[in-house]
Amino acid sequence: xxxxxxxxxxxxxxNLSATRRDPGEPGPGEIxxxxxxxxxxxxxxxQRTGLYPLPMPAILGVExxxxxxxxxxxxxxxxxxxxxAYAGIPGGYAEVRLLPAWxxxxxxxxxPTEIAxxxxxxxxxxxxxxxxxxxVKHGTTILVHAGAxxxxxxxxxxxxxxxxxxxxxxxxxxxxxxxxxxxAERVIVGRNADIAQTVRDWTDGKGAEFTIDGIGGPTLEAxxxxxxxxxxxxxxxxxxxxxxxxxxDSLGPLRSLALARPSVMAYxxxxxxxxxxxxxxxxxxxxxSAVAPGPRFPLTEAAAAQHALETGATSGVPLxxx
Length: 322
What we know:
The chain is of the alpha/beta class. It has 2 domains: 2-120 and 265-321, Medium-chain alcohol dehydrogenases, catalytic domain (Quinone Oxidoreductase, Chain A, domain 1, Alpha-Beta Complex); 122-263, Rossmann fold (3-Layer(aba) Sandwich). Helix content is 31%, strand content 27%. The chain contains 10 helices and 16 strands. The longest helix is centred in the middle third of the chain and has 21 residues, at 113-133. It starts with a strand and ends with a strand.
């Protein structure tokens, strides 16, 4: 029997409880994975609260890593005992789970299991943003909100390697220092800072060509004002609350902006995209200082891990140790 953390109904962390389930035998095209770790992401919180509905009861967690226990019929290219990671499918808050074999990504020896378990989804998100949503090239100017967060820890160094210039935001000097270590050239510190004016000063009045906003709430308006004409804003989360309605007049013609609301879950639902992006993602996770070490929680403390992430008490990537 596998220890799992089950969500009984949409709502608060009190709806998460430990139970034991038999994961069963893998069917055609499946593997059974004994997990060593699982990441805790804002999408888990959105699913828990019902913003992104799931059938109930549900097992949250859309990324993890472990060792293959068993192979189902017709599975090729994988082996029992092999260390793999996955992203993009719920069910991660469990000791053992079944997984479509095409989701299993073999891990290189140089990549620690805990980094893969807690950062693969973010690395795929960075790939989606920098390669698909706005193909970044040398000289691109980028504004990254929450510059000390888990996504920023991957986006910023990856963008810098592509030759981009990066300015970020942070709520404190401590988090600003972390963002600078990731590679941000300039950090806007404080919740009341004039983000748009600072970005425009930094870009000789033009604004950022590409803005990545994972905060939402009041920050999206600042993003609109900080982005250059014919620039792109990617809204990838709402840690600060719902952004509210956006009208076409908010985007143009005066501002002439494009607004994207990309879903990494939709991005990873396509096996061809998943397979093509995986080598770049694994390389990104092996870059020095590309991933912030985050707090560790036992699987039984998944509720505490979500609370820490939801309240902004963490820097880096929370990990459930299984």
